[in-house]
Fold:
Amino acid sequence: MITEKITKMLNKQVNQEFYSAYLYLQMSAFFEEEKLSGFAAWMKIQSGEEYKHAMKLYEYVLQANAKVELQKIDAPKNKWKDVLDVFHDTYKHEKQITGYINEIVDFALTEKDFATFSFLQWFVTEQVEEESTALLILDKIKLIGDNKTGLFFLDREMAGRART
Ligand code: OFO
Structure:
């Protein structure tokens, strides 16, 4: 059985992951408006990944015989200047999520809740990948600058995720 405090933190993280799914879906819609279908497809898949993260936490809370308490999901930002602006936000958001995960990991250790500590290792590893991917794309966008042809090809590359 997990403690009330850990349950509360995990439930909050369920909400954060659903918010991530919402945010990335909104970003996908922005890319659709901008006619960047590759970026849109990439973000839609990312949104689906976040849904899976939320459900992983949800299942764990249930499995631990604790109470799942779903909370209100905030509306995400829905306006960006350009692709660079979106990926600045994406990278910033992933770093924030890493911080939240680390807080729970840290608290689980304090409580000697080794089961939750062990469960969260998947998220710790996942966050390394999430941050690294967001930064890689951000750097590519910076490299391209105002070059429209570069953006066209990067959009095609982003579409590749939908084919894998
Ligand atoms: Fe983007 O990894 Fe979950 O939130």
Q: What stands out?
A: The pocket of hydroxy diiron-OXO moiety is lined by residues 17, 20, 50, 53, 94, 97, 126, 130 (CB under 6 Å). The CA atoms of residues 39 and 64 lie 38 Å apart. The first helix runs from residue 4 to 33.
